[in-house]
Known about the structure:
With about 170 residues, the chain is an alpha/beta fold.
Amino acid sequence: MNIVFLDYDGVVNTPMWNEDGTHCSYNFPSDNKVNNFQAVQWVSEFCQKYGYSIVVSSTWRMDKNYKECLINGGLREGIEILGRTKVLKDVTDPDTGIYVTRGVEIEQYLEQHPEVDKYLIFDDEDGLWEYQMEHLVLTDGAAGFMMNDFNKAVRLHNKFEVEECI
């Protein structure tokens, strides 16, 4: 099984201007959808084309409507949202002093799901363990997941495909 650990803010939910150009803001879970349709389509295209399911690693996962927010934001039919990572308290890497909470949550998910063959992480922050960085597609938080991120994800997927064959 192939998994994308998906953050929302900075990946599929980005700062957007209102129609009269007077206010720029994000959507929130209470809006019941992420706001960057183009980014959702790039994520959808990658998941469909390369056979990935989604595990939500975003702070939005704490809200009961975290799946609907992605679906209402344009996630294509047939892409499975398997669930979410568990919420842990702040964890700091003792060697670097960097917060790695998201990395620990992902690591814990992977330990509990040995059926995961390959995984990628779509995020605009890098609070991960060093070994997880090779799985990261780091997005520009103002733009979200765009074509260049899609291309990086494809390169990473292909790299792990080759490594699996060796």
